[in-house]
Amino acid sequence: MVELPTGYSNLIDHSASGDNVWTTADGLELLWKDMSVPHLRNASRMLERMHDKELEEAYSMLCMVRGEAATDAIEQGIRQLEHGDDLQTAKEMMNYANWRENQR
Fold first, then answer.
1. Which tens digit of pLDDT belongs to each residue from 49-74?
2. What is the pLDDT of residues 75-95, one digit of tens each?
3. DSSP 8-state class, residue 4
4. Radius of gyration of the chain measured on its C-alpha atoms
């Protein structure tokens, strides 16, 4: 089975207290509640862009393979990407940013 890479699932984690954690490019871990609204929005948009890029790459791979087993494996990876948690996390992060902004 071909395994499609996920480049950002490690960016979102949960702390021991259950809070959402964002890992910055330099490895710093931030709780969502400690991030500014613009930072939350930028992180959410980045997750969406990375998701879209991965999905595009997966569809490109589908055009390059031959054989039923290879095609099935890539299609399974595409379904996992389309219904994965990473895009949902991006939406939740944006909703949280909107909620925080309205709390002012």
1. 988 898 898 888 888 888 999 899 88
2. 888 888 888 778 888 999 999
3. -
4. 16
Task: Report the C-alpha gap between 40 and 79 in whole angstroms.
Answer: 27
Distance CA 44, CA 28 (A): 17
* Run of H or E residues at 42: helix 37-64
30's tokens? 């931030």
Phi, psi (5° rounding) for residue 77? -60, -40
Question: What are the DSSP E strand ranges found in the chain?
Answer: 12-14, 20-23, 29-31
Q: Is 42 exposed, middle or buried (0-12, 13-18, 19+ CB in 10 A)?
A: middle
Tokens representing residue 78 in the block = 């595409």
